Amino acid sequence: MPTRLQSYEAPGITVTFDPTVCTHSAVCLRGLPAVFDVRRKRWIHAEAASADEVAAQVARCPSGALQVVREPQAD
Ligand code: SF4
């Protein structure tokens, strides 16, 4: 099966989502609803919270469907 990895970029952080892994626990939706909202076509708005907040929420994803790549930001 081809991987349909989605990628959502914001300053300092990129969130990736693998829909083939997600178990639909809704942990992300409840934890940070401004960022994770499935009613939107591009459902992850990584810029709607700080990179640290987004990374902390992604770390709570029980399935590992969400991952982050952190990028150092210039001051
Ligand atoms: S927390 Fe992870 S497993 Fe749960 S709905 Fe979000 S992406 Fe899917």
Automatic annotation (TrEMBL):
Tell me the InterPro entries matching this sequence.
Divergent_4Fe-4S_mono-cluster (IPR010693)
Name the domain of life: Bacteria
Residues in Divergent 4Fe-4S mono-cluster domain copies: 8-70
Pfam families named among the record's database cross-references: Fer4_19 (PF06902)
What is the protein name given in its UniProt record?
Answer: Divergent 4Fe-4S mono-cluster domain-containing protein
